[in-house]
Amino acid sequence: MRAAVLHEIGQDKLEVLDDVEAVGFGPGKVRLRIRATGLCHSDVSAMSGVLPQPAPFIPGHEGAGEVIDVGDGVSGLSAGDRVLVCWLPACGACPSCKRGQTQLCLAGFLNAGTPNFKRPGGDVFGFAGTGTFTEEVVVGAGCAVPIPDDVPFEIAALIGCGVTTGLGAAINTAQVEAGSSVAVIGCGGVGISTVQGARVQGAAQIVAVDPVASRREAALRFGATEAVSPEEFADAKQRITGGEGFDYVFEVVGKSATARTAYENTRRGGTLCIVGAGALDDHFQVNMFELFFDEKRILPSMYGGGDVLRSYERAIALWRAGRIDLASMITHRVPLEGINDALEQMRTGASLRTCVEL
Predict the structure, then answer these.
(1) φ and ψ at residue 336, rounded to 5 degrees
(2) 355 burial type by CB count under 10 A (0-12 exposed, 13-18 middle, 19+ buried)
(3) pLDDT surpassing 80 at residue 345
(4) Which whole-number Å values give the CA distances from 84 to 40, 74, 126, 155, in the listed order?
(5) 8 Å CB contact between 266 and 246
(6) What phi, psi does 2 have (nearest 5°)?
(7) pLDDT tens for residues 301-310?
(8) What angle do CA 194, 195, 200 make, to 5 degrees?
(9) CA nearest to 273, candidates 128, 160, 167, 159
């Protein structure tokens, strides 16, 4: 079968091969036919080594498709079911799951160390234990979440990661209050979803911050009340908040420099929400006096900061009601053979979300 493979960490291009086999099918597993998958910035971060991932590997974790076969012991799924791929499934038994913090369950991360593909030359890993830049993949049953028939595969794929992450940051983690002021730094797919989440929550001012003009223009279409370049952010803070700072600032880049900017533009007593996934050696620093004196809440948000199954259902309900726009987030569509074009579109900021159609 066809799949896009990264041979070594640090390479910037994938090779589309036709000699890849999905392996590991058995009890508790399901085999999926991927129909659509989004390109998320985390895929690029894993390719560059920012996020830890063994290689060779198949990127992709934001996918949707159909069940081909189910292993022994799997209930609630059968061949032909339409599903989205959950890259961080909850085991239901660990301390995090028992506390209701299923987004902190480590079961999915443990899967990332087990190869779920092979080629004639040896084993191949799937990113985050999945790997959706491929025609077929074998995953644990918890990674396959049924979706209603009226949800297109490309919409379901977005809900599988970027939309859930961004919406959840605003709704679950920060719990944006109606009438508040919000700034979102970084307006790719996750940032745009954060903008939409803040709008759903009733924020009065939503300022989108991004260096790419096309992304700033897009943010206005998705609910931002103003969109500025990083150089214009200080002026926006002065005009909108009288220099005090925003009630909520979301960092959706994953770098300490932008996290520091976000902190400095959050009002005293306000909330800084870290959504971007960054590198292990990139350290965010605050001094002990400002940490105490400013009383700013610093809230990391992992995969939307809540139960992902409930978050999926909420995203679908909001999409059906027309409260969020998901279709317009897909700015480019490519076949699997066009994956390197999609990577370039993401790196240059030309795309919000590229849908790879298989």
Answers:
(1) -55, -35
(2) buried
(3) yes
(4) 15, 16, 16, 9
(5) yes
(6) -85, 145
(7) 999 998 999 9
(8) 95
(9) 167
Task: Please name which of 95, 96, 17, 24 lies closest in space to residue 56, comparing C-alpha atoms.
Answer: 17
280's tokens: 């292990």
Structure tokens at 80: 């032909």
Can you tell me which residue has the tokens 């189910």? Answer: 70
Task: Report the amino acid identity of residue 106.
Answer: L
The per-residue pLDDT for 109 is 75
> Which amino acid type is present at position 197?
G
Task: Identify the bridge partners of residue 357 per DSSP, sorted by sequence position.
Answer: 36, 335
Residue 34, SS3 per DSSP: strand
* CA angle, residues 311, 85, 142, in degrees to nearest 5: 80
Helix locations, 56-205, DSSP H: 95-98, 107-111, 153-159, 162-168, 189-201
Q: For residue 35, give the nearest of 61, 60, 64 by alpha carbon.
A: 64
Collapsing DSSP to helix, strand or coil, 15 comes out as strand
Q: How far apart (Å, rounded) are the C-alpha atoms in residues 171 and 12?
A: 35
pLDDT classification of 107: cutoffs 50, 70, 90: confident
List, in sequence order, the alpha helices (H) in 129-188: 153-159, 162-168
**From start to end of 200-352, where are the E strands?**
205-209, 226-228, 246-251, 266-274, 297-300, 330-335
Q: Measured between alpha carbons, how far is 92 from 107 in angstroms, rounded to an integer?
A: 10
